[in-house]
Sequence to fold (165 residues):
Amino acid sequence: MYHLYHFLSAVYGEQEEPLLGCHVLNISPQHGEYCDTSAYVLSSKLIPQLLKAAKSTPLYKEETSQLGSSYDESRSSYSPQLSAGDVSSRTEFRWLTGSVRKSAGINPVYLNIRYSHDEVSVMRWLRSPIQSPSPFIFVHLPQFSFRIWSQMCREMWRKSRNLQI
Fold:
């Protein structure tokens, strides 16, 4: 959290600006670029824009059966039936951070170089005698056991905290 806060403050200042920062992927032919679901930063100022754009941004017909969506004949489009817990669906998330984001005119802030998806880079930073901030804001390591993952998180937190003091 320290690193994320300092990074965003240095880049955008202390004022809350509309921001969608994430690891941007481009693997969805339907939705184009969208945010990886592992972590993202969304300022509250963007929520009204996204909600407004969501009302007029259709899902593709083949996706609606997966999402429990309904066809709106008056708009000739499919709309997802979203509730607070539904956005965890990868398809909905691609739709929201891809198609809806684009319809709302929101450009994502690419945090791709601040993500780590491999333990070697993280361990190299942890074991380094050089006392520098982590080059990563987000670390996504799904293949680890909980014990190894929680130990690594504690070590990253401890080193980051010690660097901030």
The beta strands are 20-28, 32-42, 70-72, 77-79, 109-110, 115-116, 138-139. The chain has six helices and seven strands. The CA atoms of residues 13 and 138 lie 20 Å apart. The chain has two domains: 17-110, 114-164.
